[in-house]
Each structure stands twice: as C-alpha cells, then as structure tokens.
Amino acid sequence: MFKRLAMQLIPVIDLQAGQVVHAVRGERRSYRPLRSSTLVQGCEPVAVARALIGATGSEVLYVAELDAILHGRRQPEPLRHLLAALPQIVLWLDAGFEDAVAAQALLAQLDPSEAGRVRPVFGSESLRDRTALEQLRDFPDAILSLDRRGATPLDRAGCWDLPESWPATLIAMALDRVGSGLGPDLELIAGLRRRAPGARLVGAGGLRDAADRRAAAVAGAGAWLVASALHEGRLAGLEALAG
User: GO molecular-function annotation terms (predicted)?
Assistant: First the structure.
C-alpha cells in the first residue's frame, strides 16, 4: 500500500518595528508590513501568529527578529507578548545570535517560566566564528540555520564545512526563495540529508502548494518554514504534526 508522507508546516512571522512584515526573496531591508492575507487583517504579531497557527495546527512558531538580525537591536517585549498570548506554543527564535552567550542573555530577559518555550536559532550568517559554532554543543535546544543565497553560503563561521559540529536540528535556509513562489530547493534538502542522515531537517523558502510539500518530504525534509503560501491560501495545514 502506498504510504503518504506527512511533513510538518511551521508558520513564520518576520518582526520589524513591532509589526509583521512580508518577506520577499530574503531582501530584508525592503520588507513592508503585511497587508494582504486570506487569514488575517493587519500586521499585529499576536493576531497574525494565531491565524497561522490555526491554519496549520502547529505547536511551533518561527519568529525572525529583523531589528536584531539587521541592526543588533534585540527586543524582548514582543517575545513576552507572544509567549503570554500563546501559552501552548514553542517559539523558534532567530535574533541574529552571534554566539550562545547572546542567546542566553536574551532568554534571561524573559519570564523564567516562559523562557523554556524558546528555542534559539543560530544562523550561519550571524555566528561569529568556529568557536561559537562548537559552543552550540552545550546548548541542548540549539537549532542551526544553514543560510545561503542562491548557491552562495552566508557563513562567517564555516558552518557548512563542519557537519561534525551541527546540532540535531538543522534548517536549510534558501533566502533567495523566501516569499518568491519559485518552489523549494530540493537539491539543497537532499544534499543535507546525505550529510546529516540523523538530523531533524527543516526546509525554508519557496514552498507553494501540496505538491511541493510532498516533493520536499521525499527529498528528506521533516518540516518546512512557511508564511506566504499560507497567507495566499495556496497551502493548508493538512497532516500537520506536533512540534
């Protein structure tokens, strides 16, 4: 009997100046507040997050803090609001962490009872150096995002060349495909699956519809970060798994 592959959808919100912005091809400086969505009106973070979670059934929400990624301005207040409003949700947080110390410093500014629901995402574009990558071994909930634009890795720390230092959860971030409608980079997923056969592999960028979702699962992705296809009504959260 044919077994249908299930792949988790993890909804994404990109935050800038306290608003949810629409991501297009990873050109972050040109992102604008979310204006068009079949799921929600406006760009208020909690409202958008609730709509995306409702559409996918996910227990995980990915948050990209663009003020932190672009300018180093980490702001705990929006995170506090999300955590308080979404008590059953785990936040995967990319705030441009250059090392584990930076992540721990931000977590220390949150309510201790809620900080445990935040998993730091360390982007290869942000990690300072190889030492910072190796320190992730001491951060049990660490997620490594292997970032690239086109065929070019964004990688100050040399993360792409050190699979022995990768944590158990990896994101394959194709920034040029984010919000593009170009489809997922299946070769990227398959290549990382061969290099890290035991990892939880999460794709990001380009997912358009159910056919893409099936193809990504076959290539080796267990989950996918998604926003645009949900807002545009092209992708439903059927078969969503617990986060």
Answer: isomerase activity
Residue type at 190 in one-letter notation: A
> pLDDT, tens digit, for every residue of 109-127?
999 999 999 999 999 999 9
C-alpha neighbours within 13 Å on the C-beta side of residue 151: 1
Q: How many residues does the chain have?
A: 243
Please choose, from the candidates 211, 215, 206, the residue with its C-alpha nearest in 3D space to the C-alpha of residue 173.
Answer: 206
Angstrom CA distances, 189 to 111, 118, 124, 223, stand at: 36, 25, 16, 11
What are the percentages of helix, strand and coil residues in the chain, rounded to 5? 35, 25, 40
Domain ranges of the chain: 8-231
Please tell me the CATH superfamily of domain 8-231, with its number.
Answer: Aldolase class I (3.20.20.70)
- pTM of the predicted model over 0.85: yes
In sequence order, what DSSP letters do the residues of 145-207 get, joined into one string?
A: EEEEETTEE--TT-GGG-GGG--SEEEEEEGGGTTT-S---HHHHHHHHHH-TTSEEEEES--
**And the tokens for 216?**
């990504």
- For residue 241, the one-letter residue type is L
DSSP 105: H
Judge contact between 201 and 182, C-beta under 8 A: no
Distance of CA 56 to CAs 43, 61, 116, 143, 186, Å?
18, 10, 23, 21, 22
Cα of first residue to Cα of last residue in the chain, in angstroms, is 27
Q: Nearest-5° angle of CA 29, CA 33, CA 184? A: 70
